[in-house]
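The instructor's notes for this session suggest beginning with a concrete chain rather than abstract definitions. Hand out the sequence below and ask the class to guess, before any prediction is shown, which regions might be ordered.
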Amino acid sequence: MYSLHDFKYPSDWIEPPASDKCIYTCYKEAVDFKLFEEDEKTLEYYYGTISSTIYLYPLCNYEQLLVASRYLTVCFVVDDFLESKLTNPDDSRVLIKKLENILMDGEFQDSNNISNIERYVLFFRETSKQFVGEKIEFFNQFLKYMIDWINSINPFNRADNLNNYDSYNFFKKVNSGTYVSLSVSMLLYPNSKVDPKIWINPRFDRFATNGGYQMATMNDCASYAKEVRNNNHLTNPLHFLQKEVGSFDNAYKMILKFNDEIMKQICEDERILIEECPVDQRDDLKVLTRSMKLIMGGNYLWSLQCSRYVDINSPFIEQRSNDPNVIGYEKIVDKILSQK
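After discussion, reveal the predicted structure:
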């Protein structure tokens, strides 16, 4: 038996979760947009996924958490939709192009054929733009990474011949969602003095990239059993690394070693970035870099307790459960598809 507690995090990467009031507000919005039927099971699914908000952004207030919860609603619904066995490749490509058009231009691509998901994404875009106010460069930065992430989903899901960690990490730099989650932190603090050009600083890029690797590493361990259950595990390193190193045990040890190495690099890059930062931006840069550390630490805390990853066959003790009241997320996704 294995444990996700094998992942070790510095103390300043961990904070207690924020208030969950935002989750219920956003659930009501999702129901109003007909993403779900309002019932106990869809609330269980929604809370189990969007509760990640209060772990990833634990220091945010209610208004900030609303923005973050809507963002994660889009991420989970779109990702689950595209991973569903009921969605064929042609439908996936069409949806991705429609969502890209909404994010880029703020309008529907086909006004005669609008899905509930599209309506919700436009609502999210407009409320986020309103929140950030005059800091349009923060908003554009977010849109760039959101569009990159959406366009990464299908290529990664179809990369069923991954057989090495280098190829996996190339995909996960974008597909982990860390860049877009970090850019959300910029949205949430529109009064920040941090120069948006920080994103083209190669050290900051490595800092964020390693954050993506770390988050992906944790997520793939946490979601391994769920992915095996749904036959989506071919791109999971716990699966393909076994071919290279001979066993699940060796693959897990390799992942933990990689995780420790990149976490050390993250801490060192943060130190140098802050040291080299102009004095008038330094405090706000500390907020941004700590935001990424809290995203990673929060993702870890959330993964330890969320129902999304529960599976009696999980190799990780934290995720083992045979509770009949825990609903499989894919059953709710089928409902969403039937209402699109």
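Then share the key points. The chain has 15 helices and no strands. The CA atoms of residues 178 and 211 lie 7 Å apart.
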